[in-house]
Structures are given as structure tokens and as C-alpha cells.
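Thread: quick sanity check before group meeting

JM: Hey all, I'm pulling together slides for Thursday and realized we never actually wrote out the predicted structure for the chain we discussed last week. Dropping the sequence here so it's in one place. If anyone has concerns about the input, flag it before I start.
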Amino acid sequence: MKLNKIISIDGNNEFLSKVMNSDNPVIVNFHAEWCEPCHILTPKMKELIEPNENIDLAIVDVESHAELVHTFEVKAVPAVIAVKNGLVVDKFIGLVDADMIENLIKKLDKKPT
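JM (edit): ok, ran it. Output follows.
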């Protein structure tokens, strides 16, 4: 298992450099310790993203990053946004099934044609 794919975000600057300016597409998982569905979704996301060499997962704790929560208009957790080339290309809120996560990963993994 490659742990370098999981990015922990420690503030806005780090978010900018590791997510918005990343060469790889990044799936950002806004989660909270007190959020039960988050404890189901986060490990599932890790598991599904692992096999993809070129997609990273960033985990943002909403309690510590109010500014990012505000910027991305996160109204509920878990919330997931997909960022590619500095743009949000997709997002969903709540506990979703594996198919939805896999579709999101496929969408990010497409090579530009």
C-alpha cells in the first residue's frame, strides 16, 4: 500500500500547493471526527483510490479548516470534491456507494484526448 497518495492538509497554503497546483488529480474528502458516515466513507475512498497511480486523496478535517469549508461551500460532511488542473470537476455530499466513487475516479483518470 502506498501511503504517499494520502495527503493531509495543514492549511490553505498547503491546500493550494498540494491540491490546486498538483500535477495529479486530487479527490478531496472533507470529513469530521464526529461524523459517523465519514468513518465509513474515508476508508472506502482510500481503498478505491489506492490502485490508481495518478490520483491522490486529500483529507480535510472540517473542524480545523473553516476557511476551506467556506471556500468550497461545504454544507455537510462527508463532502467530496474532485480537483483536476486546479479546477473542481465534480463533487458529491454524503455517504455514497462504491459505484459513485469509482465513477468519480474514472472521470479523473481519463487522459486528455
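AS: nice. The mean pLDDT is 89. The chain has one domain: 6-109.
JM: adding both to the slides.
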